[in-house]
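pls design
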């Protein structure tokens, strides 16, 4: 479950006085924070502790992650000249990532490690907007008003994602996930024209590694078939679309079904077990429509979640999956 560690008291203790980006560049902290939810919950895989803007910071983009706000970029992209700030990522730029992944693989043993990166659209939206946005108006305006600049930016960010994910895979990550968290702001037409080719470039470049490639977005129910067509092996689904319906949408054009990931609404973690358990049962049942199902939340773990509730969820999924 993505961001599972941030609800833990041991996470808050180890992060005290340390910024997000600083913690991501310290292998000792990355290893410990990644392992914390694995120890607590006994999940089936670990999620690499990092942030999608880390590779931008590594190549010198002037940005910070402001608490309660998110990534804030000092000089947003407005022209082709602004692209000079986004240079290619090399393994030397993120040597701490290689060290962190190698240590984690050694510590985890048989437990797989999932690496990740931000998809070109989502990372571009921060660069264009200058920070988080509710409507992504500046990003959409750039797409349509200057498509040449947009495609140049998205292509460069695809290369960043490829390089960053390659570093993680070569250091030992068992699978990778491409997060397009804000792609749900787009229409299918805009996604197909302005986004899909760049995400597809990332997945195609990583195919030769032979590791599972996952793709996830929020509020992307209308984009599931297009996201699948970008080349992922597993399609993440948020809580807005039942998994069996997600499988129907993914296969509507004759595409063979793929494994899916999801999709418990994080809000239900606060609803009490009598409400939560039937939802787990429903999701497990709906997930059988796919050739494989990774049970997960439909988005990240809220910071105020009771860790014991997450432990109950993991235990219930393990028990019920074994029975069925």
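designed seq:
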């Amino acid at each position: 479950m993505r961001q599972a560690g941030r609800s833990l008291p041991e996470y808050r203790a180890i992060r005290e006085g340390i910024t997000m980006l600083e913690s991501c560049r310290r292998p000792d902290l990355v290893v410990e924070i990644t392992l914390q939810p694995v120890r607590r919950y006994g999940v089936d895989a670990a999620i690499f502790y990092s942030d999608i803007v880390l590779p931008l910071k590594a190549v010198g983009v002037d940005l910070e992650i402001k608490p309660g706000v998110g990534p804030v970029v000092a000089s947003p992209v407005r022209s082709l000249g602004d692209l000079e700030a986004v240079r290619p990522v090399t393994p030397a730029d993120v040597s701490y990532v290689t060290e962190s992944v190698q240590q984690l693989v050694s510590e985890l043993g048989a437990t797989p490690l999932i690496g990740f990166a931000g998809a070109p659209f989502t990372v571009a939206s921060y660069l264009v907007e200058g920070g988080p946005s509710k409507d992504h108006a500046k990003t959409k305006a750039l797409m349509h008003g200057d498509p040449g600049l947009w495609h140049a930016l998205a292509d460069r960010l695809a290369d960043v994602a490829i390089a960053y994910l390659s570093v993680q895979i070569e250091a030992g990550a068992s699978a990778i996930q491409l997060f397009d968290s804000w792609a749900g702001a787009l229409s299918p037409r805009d996604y197909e024209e302005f986004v899909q080719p760049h995400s597809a470039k990332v997945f195609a470049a990583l195919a030769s590694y032979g590791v599972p490639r996952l793709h996830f977005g929020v509020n992307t129910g209308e984009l599931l078939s297009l996201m699948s067509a970008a080349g992922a092996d597993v399609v993440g689904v948020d809580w807005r679309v039942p998994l069996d319906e997600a499988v129907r949408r993914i296969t509507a054009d004759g595409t063979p079904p793929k494994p899916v990931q999801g999709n418990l609404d994080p809000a239900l973690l606060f609803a009490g077990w009598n409400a939560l358990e039937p939802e787990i049962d429903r999701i497990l049942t709906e997930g059988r429509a796919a050739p494989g199902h990774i049970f997960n939340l439909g988005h990240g773990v809220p910071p105020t979640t009771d860790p014991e509730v997450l432990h109950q969820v993991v235990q219930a999924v393990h028990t019920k999956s074994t029975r069925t």
